[in-house]
């Protein structure tokens, strides 16, 4: 490990920076360790390798000081009442809250969502256990072939992004065709299967509320397969030696219909609204829901897929999160998506061309997280 870490050098002086920095070689050296950011942390690096250095403009953290946004603190919280509404008025109030959040923030937190708190804790523990096991065990899963059933890697866009982010990730498509149990690591297999089933159930309920918030029948989004696919990404953010120089995840929006995010209690998530970054403080037992690019596309911009990022981890322990993306991604799915007919009119014509989910996912995979919206590519 020492010789490999030595190849991934800390930031040079200004006078030597251009001459000595062979970025591609250092990216390859990092990638070939197959131990990710956790490997650097375990090796005791005290200076951040140059491949992780973000530009100052990407690290800027503007906050609203004197504007209409001053009264806002963070994304709305919506009580789902255990997914059971005693009367129509309660359901209508919830739908109204979802509509306002989806239109103005693209994000909201849900409480009393029907997923047990014990399962949330076990899922986060499973992510920690996988990442904190012996490197030789993890290496067998390390890959950049995202067609594999289970992929462990660091930075899916390592070779295309302007700076690597301080995080490792393992991912798996959990629906509509769940992996065979033997394709998942034993250390987190059972909880991944259980949590994904619960998330699909919650997602179907959320799509009902979102359908009603659009003025459509409750089953509309489910009937067009918005809840058909589920891709689970489990992120691990070790403590960062120089957190002011990098990010845990750079600015991006999600290429999904919706995302259900399970955070832990270490802060870091920020949502961009009207040019300002808003912190999303962890709320015990809450799940974070956000509109993805595909939902913005089919709602013709009525619901917004907001950009967000994760700050580098300043805590003494690792931060983990589990993002479940409702999308079939690069998997086969012949359905064509465009703005929903009921939502367009002569005064509000379609803003996007018809696409497949696979087209959208392939574009994101090739482009990476470069700070620009993938939706621009699909505008009419």
From TrEMBL:
One of its GO terms (molecular function) is metal ion binding. Residues 228-329 form the Fe2OG dioxygenase domain. InterPro entries: DIOX_N, IPNS-like_FE2OG_OXY, IPNS-like_sf, Oxoglu/Fe-dep_dioxygenase_dom. The keyword Iron applies. Keywords: Iron, Metal-binding, Oxidoreductase. Pfam families: 2OG-FeII_Oxy, DIOX_N. Its cofactor is Fe cation. Belongs to the iron/ascorbate-dependent oxidoreductase family. This is 1-aminocyclopropane-1-carboxylate oxidase homolog 2. The lineage of its organism: Eukaryota, Viridiplantae, Streptophyta, Embryophyta, Tracheophyta. The gene is LOC108843962.
């Amino acid at each position: 490990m020492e010789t490999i870490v030595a190849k991934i050098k800390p930031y040079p002086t200004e006078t030597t920076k251009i001459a000595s920095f062979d970025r591609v070689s250092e990216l390859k050296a990092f990638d070939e360790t197959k131990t990710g950011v956790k490997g650097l942390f375990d090796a005791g690096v005290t200076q951040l390798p140059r491949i992780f250095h973000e530009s100052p403009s990407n690290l800027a953290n503007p906050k609203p000081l004197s504007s209409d946004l001053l009264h806002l603190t963070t994304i709305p919280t919506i009580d789902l009442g255990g997914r059971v509404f005693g009367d129509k008025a309660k359901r209508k109030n919830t739908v109204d809250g979802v509509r306002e959040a989806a239109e103005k923030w693209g994000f909201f937190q849900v409480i009393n969502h029907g997923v047990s708190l014990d399962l949330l804790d076990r899922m986060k523990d499973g992510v920690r256990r996988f990442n904190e096991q012996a490197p030789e065990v993890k290496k067998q899963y390390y890959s950049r072939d995202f067609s594999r059933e289970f992929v462990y890697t660091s930075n899916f866009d390592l070779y295309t992004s302007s700076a690597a982010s301080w995080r490792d990730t393992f991912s798996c498509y959990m629906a509509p065709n769940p992996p065979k149990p033997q394709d998942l690591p034993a250390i987190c297999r059972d909880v991944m299967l259980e949590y994904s089933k619960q998330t699909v159930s919650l997602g179907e309920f959320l799509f009902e509320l979102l359908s009603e918030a659009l003025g459509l029948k409750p089953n509309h989004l489910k009937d067009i397969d918005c809840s058909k696919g589920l891709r689970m990404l489990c992120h691990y953010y070790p403590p960062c030696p120089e957190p002011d120089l990098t990010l845990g995840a750079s600015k991006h929006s999600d290429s999904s219909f919706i995302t259900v995010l399970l955070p832990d209690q270490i802060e870091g998530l920020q949502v961009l609204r009207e040019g300002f970054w808003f912190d999303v403080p962890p709320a015990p037992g809450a799940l974070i829901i956000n509109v993805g690019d595909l939902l913005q596309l089919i709602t013709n911009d009525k619901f917004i897929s907001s950009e967000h990022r994760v700050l580098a981890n300043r805590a003494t322990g690792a931060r983990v999160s589990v993002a479940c993306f409702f999308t079939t991604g690069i998997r086969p799915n012949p359905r064509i998506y465009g703005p929903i007919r009921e939502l367009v009119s002569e005064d509000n014509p379609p803003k996007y061309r018809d696409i497949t989910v696979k087209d959208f996912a392939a574009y994101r995979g090739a482009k990476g997280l470069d700070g620009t919206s993938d939706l621009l590519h699909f505008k009419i």
